[in-house]
Specification:
The protein is of the alpha/beta class and about 160 residues long. The protein contains seven helices and six strands; from the N terminus they run E-H-H-E-H-E-H-E-H-E-E-H-H.
């Protein structure tokens, strides 16, 4: 069974000020693709470094896919990219470019959000901005790619 995790960085959603709406989009998409994935973990921006570092530091325990939502903007407390980047074995910049290109079709400011895609061992990771639109854009970009990525990471180099 393929496994996945979704981690959402949102101080206000973590405090219960409003419900997170981007995490459920990502979880639902992953489940529709056959992944075993729990509900999204929602953490405050202040907790993100600790939570993500713990997940990323446990290489044997990493899922097949890790998607994050939020913490990708230009504010001082938007730290998702900065936490993930040092852990990556390889970055996949083409996915980020495809994501921005797709987002620009709907919203000219899409390129102001930082994103990152890459791998740690056999785990695919992507950081997505914390909106429903960004989550939908990410799933649209990843949908035709994810099985191919995971096959390659699993050792199927003919895929």
């Amino acid at each position: 069974m393929r496994t996945a995790l979704v981690v959402v960085s949102s101080t206000r959603a973590a405090a219960g000020d409003y419900p997170d709406r981007s995490g459920p989009v990502l979880v639902s998409w992953l489940r529709s693709r056959g992944f075993d994935v729990p509900e999204a973990t929602v953490v405050s921006d202040a907790e993100l470094t600790h939570v993500l570092s713990g997940i990323l530091g446990d290489r044997p325990g990493l899922p097949s896919v890790l998607l994050t939502s939020g913490g990708t903007g230009l504010s001082d407390d938007d730290r998702t990219i900065d936490v993930i980047a040092p852990h990556l074995d390889r970055e996949i910049p083409g996915i980020a470019h495809a994501f921005w290109s797709h987002g620009m079709q709907q919203l000219s400011t899409a390129v102001l959000s930082r994103t990152l895609a890459g791998v740690i061992g056999t785990t695919f990771i992507m950081a997505v901005p914390g909106s429903v639109g960004a989550a939908r854009d990410a799933t649209a970009v990843l949908d035709p790619l994810l099985d191919h990525i995971l096959a390659i990471l699993g050792g199927d180099h003919d895929h």
